[in-house]
Amino acid sequence: MKQPVLRDLLRVPAGKPVDLSTYSASEITAGPASKVAGTEATALLAPRLAEFQERLYAASTAGDRRRLLLVLQGMDTSGKGGTVKHVIGHFNPSGCRVRAFKAPTAEERNHPFLWRISRALPVPGEIGIFDRSHYEDVLIARVRDLVPRRDLGRRYGQINRWEESLADDGVTIVKVFLHISYEEQRARLLERLDNPEKHWKFNAGDIEERALWPAYQEAYELALERCSTGVAPWYVVPADRKWYRNWAISKLLLEHLEALDPRYPPGDFDVAESRRLLLAS
Fold first, then answer.
1. Torsion angle defined by CA atoms of residues 244, 54, 262 and 58, in that order, rounded to the nearest 10 degrees
2. Distance CA 67, CA 244 (A)
3. HEC per residue, the chain
């Protein structure tokens, strides 16, 4: 039986209204049905992911400009950092470019909002990972009224045009919204409070941000609706189960890399002659 394509199942339809309350944060959309099976299945994906990463990098040495960018967005505790740790661990770190975006610096505020994002993009042959991204400029900026609404409205179009230009330049963009439930977020925040070794992860501001949950859900719905396009669709990954989140994102990445199908470039030298000279040396 043919396996379902996960990116078809998790893709947000382009241009249609999004209601996150209709998306389950704990549903097993497809794939392994238990934590044990999921952990094993994720491990089995690792060799193929590593192979495709090497092929992508090798192809770039012959002029192939293609690269992949994974964009991770989600509420606090949804697992952006965990994804970087568990999923990106399948890859060779030297071929990855990971960037976590915090509040913009004074210098960054003096530039258009996409300026700092453009500086962090992967180069040909690399896999880039954004822990938060340019979408913060239509998420927290909307919830906290950091920019005038007229400027905010224009940003969706700016983002779509910018992402289209990236796709034209060989960037495969995989945008993932880690969908966590209100109840699961409370449980994860309590876990941080109850474990002194996790206090460094907790910020009193997390509680204040949690009080703005409805506003953030609305901001995400708008971003998903207006910026899920043919060249850069959004994927909603149920994130209440950490093991399923890890499998789903690993599978999404593999599907996109398989579609790219990068190839090892042929050698531009005489193999037989090089072998003869090496053996004679």
1. 160
2. 25
3. CCCCCHHHHHECCCCCCCCHHHCCCCCCCCCCCCHHHHHHHHHHHHHHHHHHHHHHHHHHCCCCCCEEEEEEEECCCCCHHHHHHHCHHHCCHHHEEEEECCCCCHHHHCCCCCHHHHCCCCCCCCEEEEECCCCHHHHHHHHCCCCCHHHHHHHHHHHHHHHHHHHHCCEEEEEEEEECCHHHHHHHHHHHHHCHHHHHHCCCHHHHHHCCHHHHHHHHHHHHHHHCCCCCCEEEEECCCHHHHHHHHHHHHHHHHHHHCCCCCCCCCCHHHHHHHHHHC
Of 88, 181, 190, 192, the residue nearest 131 (C-alpha): 88
pLDDT digits (tens, 9 = 90+) for 214-260: 999 999 999 999 999 999 999 999 999 999 999 999 999 999 999 99
Partners of 130 in the β-ladder: 71, 99
Type of residue numbered 7: R
